[in-house]
Amino acid sequence: MSQVIPESELIINPDGSIYHLNLKPEHLAGSILAVGDPDRVAKISKHFDKIEYQGGKREFITHTGTFRGKRISVISTGMGTDNIEIFMTELDALVNVDLETRIPKKTHTVLEIVRVGTSGSMQEDIPIDSLLASTHAVGLDSLMTFYSLDHTLFETNLMEQVRNELKLPFTPYCVTGSARLIKKLGKELMSGITVTCPGFFAPQGRKVRLEPAIPGIIHTLSSIQADGNRLSNFEMETAGYYAMGRLLGHEVLSLNAIIGNRISQTFSKNPDLIVENLILHALNNF
Fold this sequence. Notes:
By secondary structure, the chain is an alpha/beta fold. About 25% of the residues lie in helices and about 30% in strands.
């Protein structure tokens, strides 16, 4: 028999909702669009046929409704893989733990989770205003230091290559996205290997007043080849999604609106339009 999860390990609010997301199981659809910006939730749910639930806590805002008859939840996460760990763990608990008894369910429920976010290109021929699906993600953060994550040979080789090229004091992690969701939502989009950075400035090679410890990090990453595959773009969450999805047994895909190109040093003149294009693509193909 499964053991009861202690109150201190899985916190439930007095109203029966899960601690950070402030959701009850009935509030959550099996298909989820995840965004970083809380303001982007309404930009997606405005396309719904109807909205049945709206709620939130801190940066985690949820709208659940239907689009062309399909039940979908849109949830914001804020930025960074630390938030993604909270988000993914609590989503999983909502469907795979009985919150009243605190006992994991015998039957595992698989969620479909699609990130709809912005990203920067690290290849000159991946232009601004393009849309890209992440086949893999490389995490430059330390989240997987605290979990036991298995890797394929391709993933392990790429992890080691990135570590050696950047001369990192730790080994990054690499995880493949959902093949089923790539087939479903990646059609007509560019594809590539996404690098997840643990910050916006120095971890992405930007200098304001502080000098980055790894000069030219984006140019170094852009030159890496793995079995003929390039590192294509960078952002701050995808690797966390893919790693937690693998560990928890969920189908996860990251879709990226390319709003900047660090090689050509260009930025989109209308980033809201390209994000709207990505939203419509995700809704129409989910």
